[in-house]
Design a protein that fits this description.
390 residues; mainly alpha; Growth Hormone, Chain: A; 19 helices; NO3_transporter
């Protein structure tokens, strides 16, 4: 019974973790009315949760193999209580910054499920299973939409404190329903590193995820503030528009995993990177709001399919070291979300335009397209089989 509920339970865990992960960027328009934040620090405040949320994915992936998902999710939700409380009581932007750093725990939980869940299913379903789990990305949409609404109704401090109830509830839920008998891998981390470090596929998959998930995270934290400042939308409307982008990427991620179980993964990836390039061209043109949002949603769909495909490939290629490989690849995806807001801000400061920043993104996507196409042409018969139950 406990084994059967792990996919819905861990998907709900990811939703809750990602809801907490983006609370600072979602409440920033309301927070700015109470706390003086230098304009040159806004991008940093939105980017810092991504850093810890990315770097911690490596140890979280390994520890999920070692300790199991139940322990890791429960501990993560308990630890997240501290930064959420700090943000809700902050009076300076420096306190927001410290709280934002440790919100990264909410993003790091991604590595837990992609390591744990494939053990419950045959390899031919791994793409779909990890795609369903990846639907937990919708948690960012829920916060982006609900947090501004709660802030308008109760104030931003009370809105943040509501998350303390959510996190405590999920800590209890995982302690009670998590799989106590989940098989665990006990291979030392250095042995696993030696086994995968020189495999070029690890770094190619990392580059792919750097673009697909990085673009998803970057636009999630960048859009609310940009839509209010550039297009004059109010915070709630900007939150709804951003939520639509996130839901698009989350729903299509399930489709991406399903497609990856049935079709050539490298051709699918090449197609998604072509769509990233097209979306970047639209955004660089800075058109009217409707066309701008169309470009955003095109990138969202491409992100979703690309994310689903990558996490079909990783457990298939690195069966015995899946936890660590998942952590490394997902770390680079998270870090991919850190740089675009900073690059776009630097582009605006240096050139008075976002066009060079979007051009850099398109070049990254073009490089990934070429690599994915090349891997498809050189693909050996099959990658090593994935692990069964550990």
């Amino acid at each position: 019974m406990r084994a059967r509920i792990q996919l819905p339970l861990q998907t709900a865990d990811l939703i809750a973790g990602f809801m907490a992960w983006v609370i600072l960027s979602s409440l920033l328009p309301a927070i700015k009315q109470d706390i003086a934040i230098p304009e040159n620090q806004l991008a940093l405040l939105t980017a810092v949760p991504v850093v810890l949320g990315s770097v911690l994915r490596v140890p979280f992936g390994y520890l999920a193999d070692l300790l199991g998902a139940r322990v890791m999710f429960t501990a993560s939700f308990v630890l997240l209580l501290a930064p959420v409380w700090l943000i809700s009581s902050a009076t300076t932007w420096q306190e927001l910054l410290v709280g934002g750093v440790f919100l990264g725990l909410g993003g790091a939980v991604f590595s837990i499920g992609v390591t744990s869940l494939p053990a419950y299913y045959p390899q031919e379903r791994h793409g779909f299973v990890n795609g369903v789990y990846g639907f937990g990305n919708v948690g960012t949409a829920l916060t982006t939409w609900l947090a501004p609404v709660a802030a308008a109704a109760f104030g931003w401090r009370a809105a943040a404190q509501l998350y303390l109830i959510l996190l405590a509830a999920f800590a209890v839920l995982n302690f009670a329903l998590g799989d106590r008998s989940e098989p665990r891998a006990k291979t030392p981390i250095m042995s696993q590193l030696r086994a995968i470090w020189r495999d070029s596929r690890l770094w190619k998959f990392s580059l792919f995820y750097f673009v697909t998930f990085g673009a998803f995270v970057a636009l999630t934290v960048y859009l609310p503030n940009f839509l209010t400042s550039h297009y004059g939308l109010d915070g709630v409307t900007a939150g709804i528009a951003t939520s639509a982008f996130i839901v698009t990427a989350a729903v299509v991620r399930v489709l991406g995993g399903w497609l990856a179980d049935r079709f050539d993964c490298h051709r699918l990836l090449a197609g998604t990177f072509a769509a990233h390039i097209a979306g970047a061209v639209v955004l660089a043109a800075a058109p009217g709001l409707s066309l701008y949002l169309a470009g955003i949603y095109l990138i969202g769909a491409a992100c979703g399919i690309g994310n689903g495909v990558v996490f079909k490939l990783v457990p298939s290629a690195f069966g015995k070291q899946a936890g660590l490989a998942n952590g490394i690849v997902s770390m680079w995806g998270g870090l991919g979300g850190f740089f675009p807001p900073l690059v776009l801000s630097a582009s605006l400061a240096a050139f008075g335009s976002y066009v060079p920043g979007f051009a850099a993104f398109a070049l990254f996507a073009a490089a990934c397209l070429a690599i994915a196409a090349s891997m498809g042409k050189r693909l050996a018969p099959q990658e090593p089989p994935a692990r069964g139950r550990r």
